[in-house]
Specification:
8 strands, alpha/beta, binds S-adenosylmethionine, eight-stranded mixed β-sheet
């Protein structure tokens, strides 16, 4: 898409439709080939402890499409309230539910109906009553201000056309001193418009990736202090097109912990 002056722009409604279509497939047909890896072998390579994965619904792990491990940084405690932005089929929400226990609460928010339906069905089957999957957008998640101890997210913020709004929403949801622990895709150099205006590459978790210093600055501007930042070299894109962009622009996965001031 381009403006009347010929400057390319991202069509955000096309992007939303593409993202929804892609992650509907991830929910319904996780064994298909995507630009990215999915499932248990990916989760284990990223550092998820196998014994914890054994304790949650296997179908949630089949549709896992995250990009890193960050739950060690989140250090969730029993009784805490957790908000999972872009909860997908629920793998991280279910692991968070184990950590916060029956006295805690996990709220997963996602905009894709098939992901929500799958996550809700699995929560019911596994009797994980402390998890509540809500339809919504990560830029304005349906939670009350100041009620959350830890916001988590995996492979999702890069998909948002308004990342400052996502970080501001996370800060609003958190109590003072609350944590933001996430994994996401960032780049070494800013992506050219040919890439950032390509909704297909964006939906594949590349086109929307922010330059790493800009990403840090956006988090800090929302009122967070970044405490830990680590690279996840175990994460690799799998298609040739994605791989080329990765090499050219230094596209990498990171995990971080930030605290709300
Ligand atoms: C890469 S998947 C990751 C899902 C999950 N966190 C995981 O690790 O498997 C991205 C998810 O974010 C959701 N999503 C993307 N953009 C969103 C937005 N702006 N608001 C709500 N959900 C969004 C998609 O529907 C999809 O389920």
């Amino acid at each position: 898409m381009s403006t009347p002056t010929g400057i390319p722009t991202l069509d955000t409604s096309e992007l939303e439709q593409r993202v929804k279509r892609m992650y509907e497939e991830v929910a319904l047909e996780p064994d298909r080939d995507f630009h990215f890896e999915t499932g248990r072998p990916l989760a284990e390579r990223l550092g998820y402890p196998p014994d914890e994965l054994d304790r949650i619904p296997a179908a949630a792990i089949d549709s896992f499409a995250g990009v890193g491990y960050f739950l060690d940084l989140a250090a969730l405690a029993p009784g805490e309230t957790v908000l999972d932005l872009g909860s997908g089929s629920g793998m991280d929400s279910f692991l968070a539910a184990l950590a916060v226990g029956d006295e805690g609460t996990v709220i997963g928010v996602d905009m894709t109906d098939a992901q929500l339906a799958k996550a809700r069905a699995l929560a019911t089957e596994a009797d994980l009553t402390q998890v509540d999957f809500r339809a919504g957008y990560i830029e304005r998640p349906p939670v009350a201000d100041g009620t959350v101890d830890c916001v988590i997210s995996n492979g999702v913020v890069n998909l948002s056309p308004d990342k400052p709004a996502v970080f501001a929403a996370a800060a609003r949801a958190l109590r003072s001193g609350g944590r933001l622990a996430l994994s996401d895709i960032v780049t070494a150099t800013r992506l050219p418009e040919g890439v950032t205006c390509d909704a297909a590459l964006w939906a594949a978790c590349i086109g929307g990736a922010m330059q790493r210093d800009d990403y840090r600055a956006a988090i800090e501007a929302a009122g967070f202090e970044i405490e830990t930042w680590r690279e996840n070299p175990q994460y690799q894109f799998v298609s040739e097109r994605a791989d080329n962009a990765t090499t050219k622009y230094g596209v990498t996965s990171i995990s971080l912990l930030a605290r709300r001031r």
